[in-house]
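Complex 332.
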Amino acid sequence: MTKAISAQGLVKSFGDVQALNGIDLEVEQGSVVGLLGPNGSGKTTIVRILTTLLNADSGTASVSGFDVQSQPDDVRSVIGLTGQYAAVDQYLTGRENLELFGRLFHLSKRDAATRADELLDRFALSDAADRGIKGYSGGMRRRLDLAASLIGRPSVLFLDEPTTGLDPRSRQGMWDVIQSLVAEGTTVLLTTQYLEEADQLASSIVVLDHGNVIAKGTSDELKNQVGGDRIELVVSNAADSLRAATVLAPFGSAQATVDEDAKRVLVPVAGGSNAIVDAIRALDEASIAITDIALRRPTLDDVFLSLTGRITEEDQAPKAPKSGRRSRRGGN
Ligand SMILES: Nc1ncnc2c1ncn2[C@@H]1O[C@H](COP(=O)(O)OP(=O)(O)O)[C@@H](O)[C@H]1O
Ligand SMILES: [Mg+2]
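Predicted structure with adenosine-5'-diphosphate bound:
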């Protein structure tokens, strides 16, 4: 079967900046691939090359079997793109925006109106359809932007950081919408800085760093590389540390780590939130008092630390905070 997306050895530099160092990518039809990486790792550059907005310096790529360089019109006819920043017109209403996109896709006036209606309804924007989008919330903007990219019924959809900057509730709303598209068989390539987002949406994840693919796999495979989920607990009495580790051993997926001085016990677990409920019950039955217990899930930073031996740059050398700067850790 033709791959939805296929790329070999993509290289791109901007002046002195080597944005991509030879990217290979294969995406099966109907699957969701997440490109996961920190700011500046090359995510948007890959999306721009695959969507014909930018030529690679070398390497080849095709979408639905069409070469991005020699058959750009064919590529454009099968894709949808939602950029990192909303591409809709500020001064039009939601409905006018979607009708405009429909006309750009050569739909008749009537078909454009029908399609706009369908999409407004589907993305819970019907009530706001005739308001100028200047007054839309961030989440509504993103949904409208996604709706616009679906006008032409694309078979391959590119979403560049679809939820960056959204509050948790709007983020969940976008996730639901994306999941429903996937259920209909649309192939999705999404970029994200959040392991949790890739985890929720993507069947396979490609981790990028400085224009290189540094890991590929399912979310579970990546998390297992960093040791997966773990329960971290602090016992009230140092003397209980070892006993706690013994009590929790049946729930652990690997050897526990005990720091008696810090009264801290780390237990790798497979069962996620069920494991913590079982653990609390077992500790209680053994009369072991604790001052703190938490389930720690690996974050992008943990994956990065494990893969590269360093934390992501933004954290390493914090810049002066800019207003509106987003936190990679926050909100999820
Ligand atoms: N048009 C451009 N001109 C110069 N440098 C660019 C341009 N686009 C991207 N870059 C650089 O290429 C690298 C990768 O950028 P990008 O693909 O936007 O990363 P990401 O989307 O992962 O944040 C960064 O170092 C960025 O500064
Ligand atoms: Mg980007």
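Residues 168-183 form the longest helix (16 residues).
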